[in-house]
């Protein structure tokens, strides 16, 4: 999560990349202007990137590509070779004198650069309010995914990105961050203590100010999308109602109303884009901040597999009707593995995540990025240590911004 003094501003919209997809084999799945601007380099899809035969199949995306493709093998091999080169910790303050302090979030390291914040997205994987593992390439793919969505959603909610000097880094203007997360849900699902399904099966029918109908089952679509806000405690998210948010002075009524409207609009837009690419955006979370001019800005991350749940659309209905878990492209399978092998909320020491699960998650994050954006994820060159590369790029960017 971001510190309470963060926000993010506009990038120029990226060029739209297009391609078609195809299946090789059938294999069922088990289980305003800115001073400086740095663009993420993009590459048009090379011929044969994905192998898919028809336009209809593009809208009926299935897990064959996820479980049996040359691209998967390429990424899995690269991920396995990069397990010892993950970006788990950063210490830019030691190398860049203009950085005043560091705040360590679950995934991001946030550095105070005076007028700016430097947000480094690491490879740490969090769930259950703790770090579970380090996933190769995760920081880069999260940064890439968020930036793509920030570009696509400027018409709904402005943001405050200043520069993107490195694959893992975003530089942002400071703003006052509302201490509330806007969790938007379209389905009754989840496995954590604060998931809608967990509280629903425990008998809760009025959750964060939303009345949930009787008789719903796991993974069922809600009658309408809802917001279940949370506020940040010392180490975990706490559900809260809109009335409590205003009463406790966390947000004014006007700010809450504006942010909640933006959140629902962002989610509806995200669902539409996901559907066009054969996916279901099930739920997600947004964070907002207030700029010095009083505008409410979207910050942190947008529709990433860390902040969102995605299912494959073509098989959802049949699997739901048969009581089978949806095919997912997010970190849920890793959550479930830890719940099966330990108590991730209470055990002091957690087991190490199996290598095959770590590399599989790296692939799924990249698969989601490539499917949604229709662009090819650039596997990083490991000849230069990631921390050295980030330090060099951030130092150069800050020098340019301050001149």
Rg result: 20 Å
Strand content: 15-25%
Task: Kindly provide the name of the CATH class of the largest domain.
Answer: Alpha Beta
CATH architecture title of the largest domain: 2-Layer Sandwich
Question: What value does the average pLDDT take?
Answer: 84
Helical run tally: 11
Largest sheet: 8 strands, antiparallel
The figure for the number of domains is: 2
Family: Belongs to the SAICAR synthetase family.
Pathway: Purine metabolism; IMP biosynthesis via de novo pathway; 5-amino-1-(5-phospho-D-ribosyl)imidazole-4-carboxamide from 5-amino-1-(5-phospho-D-ribosyl)imidazole-4-carboxylate: step 1/2
GO molecular function, one term: phosphoribosylaminoimidazolesuccinocarboxamide synthase activity
Pfam family, one: SAICAR_synt
Describe the structure.
With 403 residues, this protein is of the alpha+beta class. The chain is 31% helix and 21% strand. The protein contains eleven helices and 17 strands. The chain has helices at 55-58, 64-67, 70-81, 138-152, 196-201, 242-247, 253-276, 316-321, 332-341, 355-373, 386-402; strands at 101-104, 108-112, 116-121, 124-127, 130-134, 161-166, 169-173, 176-177, 180-188, 206-207, 210-211, 220-227, 230-232, 237-239, 279-290, 296-299, 308-312. The strands form four sheets. Strands 8, 9, 12, 13, 14, 15, 16 and 17 form an eight-stranded antiparallel β-sheet that branches. It has a five-stranded antiparallel β-sheet with strand order 1-2-3-7-6. A two-stranded antiparallel sheet has the order 4-5. The longest helix has 24 residues, at 253-276.
């Amino acid at each position: 999560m971001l510190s309470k003094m963060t926000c993010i501003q506009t990038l120029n919209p990226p060029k739209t990349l297009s391609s078609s997809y195809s299946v090789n084999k059938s294999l069922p799945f088990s289980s305003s202007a800115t001073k400086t601007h740095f663009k993420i380099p993009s590459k048009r899809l090379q011929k044969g990137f994905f192998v898919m035969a028809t336009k209809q199949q593009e809208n009926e995306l299935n897990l064959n590509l996820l479980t049996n493709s040359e691209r998967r093998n390429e990424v899995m091999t690269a991920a396995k070779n990069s397990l010892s080169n993950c970006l788990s910790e950063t210490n830019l303050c030691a190398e860049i004198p203009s950085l005043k302090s560091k705040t360590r979030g679950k995934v991001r390291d946030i550095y105070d650069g005076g007028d700016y914040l430097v947000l480094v997205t690491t490879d740490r994987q969090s769930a259950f309010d703790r770090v579970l593992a380090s996933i190769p390439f995760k920081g880069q793919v999260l940064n890439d995914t968020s930036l793509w969505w920030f570009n696509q959603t400027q018409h709904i909610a402005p943001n405050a990105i200043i520069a993107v000097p490195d694959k893992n880094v975003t530089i942002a203007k400071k703003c006052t961050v509302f201490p509330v997360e806007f969790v938007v849900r379209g389905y009754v699902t989840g496995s954590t203590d604060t998931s809608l399904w967990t509280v629903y099966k425990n008998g809760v029918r009025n959750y964060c100010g939303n009345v949930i109908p009787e008789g719903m089952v796991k993974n069922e679509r809600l009658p309408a999308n809802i917001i279940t806000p949370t506020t940040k405690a010392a180490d975990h998210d706490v559900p809260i109602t809109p009335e409590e948010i205003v009463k406790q002075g966390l947000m004014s009524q006007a700010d809450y109303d504006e942010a909640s409207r933006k959140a629902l609009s962002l989610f509806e837009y995200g669902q539409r884009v996901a559907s066009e690419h054969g996916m279901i955006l099930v739920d997600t979370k947004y964070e907002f901040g207030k700029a010095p001019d009083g505008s409410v800005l979207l910050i942190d991350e947008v529709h990433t597999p860390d902040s969102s749940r995605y299912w494959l659309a073509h098989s959802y209905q049949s699997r739901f009707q048969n009581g089978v878990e949806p095919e997912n492209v997010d970190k849920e399978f890793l959550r479930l593995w830890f719940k099966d092998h330990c108590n991730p909320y209470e055990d002091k020491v957690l087991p190490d995540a199996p290598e095959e699960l770590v590399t599989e998650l790296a692939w799924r994050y990249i698969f989601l990025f490539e499917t949604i954006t229709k662009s090819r994820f650039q596997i990083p060159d490991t000849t230069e240590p990631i921390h050295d590369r980030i330090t060099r790029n951030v130092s150069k960017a800050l020098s340019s911004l301050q001149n």
